Amino acid sequence: MAKRPLGAQISHMLKARGVEVIFGIPGVHNQELYRGIEEAGIKHILPRHEQGAGFMADGYARATGKPGVAYVITGPGLLNLLTPMGQAYSDSVPMLVISSCLDPQDRGVGKGKLHEMKDQEGAAATVCDWSKTAYDATSAYQLIDRALMEFSTSRPRPKHLQLPIKLLEGQAEAPPAAAVQVQGYAAPGAAQIARIADELKAAKRPLFILGGGAARAPVGIIRDMLARAGAASFVTYAGRGLALPDDPLSFGSFLARPDAAKVIGSADCVVAVGTELAEVDLWRDGLGNQVPMIRVDLDPATLADGQNMGTRLLSEAERFCRALNVELAGHAPKTAWQPAEVAASRARWRAEVDALYPGILPVAEALRAALPPKTMIYSDMTQFAYAAKEVWDMELPGHWHHPFGFGTLGYALPAAIGGKVGRPNLPVVAIAGDYGFQYTIQELGTAVELGLPLPILLWDNGKLGAIEASMIRAQIAPNAVTLRNPDFLALARAYGAFAEEPGSLDALCAATLTALKAPGPTLIRMRPGLA
Q: What domains does the chain contain, in order, with CATH numbers?
């Protein structure tokens, strides 16, 4: 192909590598990236803020398994996207951010240039896997291919590539053809798998802790493994759906309940697969296991984190579970776990959550019963989600997405938009609180523009309820936790969205199902006391 501006070449390269959607905002510094988008056949989604672009790319990646790609301008455009990049880094989401930057002679020298920063590359590097500057077309192509390869061969985390304005505008040769994708991980060693299988066979109370990293494995393999081992299980919030909701030996996602540590301490073989066992998974200092843990993860840093570990296996969850299933074939487990003790623990923990977040569980359980199969949910940092992620059993993994690690407000709406773009024919729901919703409420405009049938369930209690409760527990007089909200229904209608405020649980469920088929987004306000 003849030479063309590098910005156009990059869009054609991304299309050739399988990129179908780009989220971004054009500006005078990055407009050359837009020269080739339509010609390449890529769909572009225009958010109302760069933070929305990042969260949409994140939501798209989680829904599809493909990298989310965002185009942003120099300086403030990239800075606005750093929060979504930090969230994607925390939750292992593949995201490629391509920004413009000032030309080398104009960078960080105080010339008063438009969008000038001291160190744009360094700023982005604090919240992503790597941040690099390409100074020629060849380097730009190599960095894009490096990012795409690393998404499938190592822990997926965001990458940032920046390109000087004059380089984007300059003529460039076409990028090279896509190389054959390399294999991500080697199969786990047969001897290690055999030793782990022997430990499980000898155990009376084997226990699996399953995290979001295992959610990428076929769910049937995970469930077969649990059954063959006769194992009880916990799932992290990100791992919900890996165990069957009605599995009598599933402790569910109550891993962070304080006395869950006692249950884990009673196990004589503990296997943790695809989880960091981080603060946001446990909310205590340690897992509670009294025997050395078998740890399986694709990140060497996780395997070296100092927790009570015995065997450490660097492996993808799917490869590990497949190999372990072979070793466990024909094993007749004689587990000492009793369904009655599991049920009693779950009932006790459910009551604790109900007491901590009064009035939320009946609403969550009504919605869970009403939503159709394969519904994908995106939630924000809100009391409704905090309660639901413990009690709402998922039928499938990877179908509830939450800003777990970084804990960003404003995530749900734009991420759900990205998710719906990625799975247009399947149901998607957003759940937000009244405060966090206002961080990215302007993205209603994008959802309306796209005509997305997207229910937005808004928990409106007129306050920062979780912070108020935390301050009271710490014996701090609650301060700055109440707010004057706008008329959310009128505001949604002003954007062109539909808006409802159901007066009962039945009406809430009916409104949500209607919204899944509407010709645009629907804001559904929920207030405490809904029954």
A: 4-172 (3.40.50.970), 190-337 (3.40.50.1220), 357-526 (3.40.50.970)
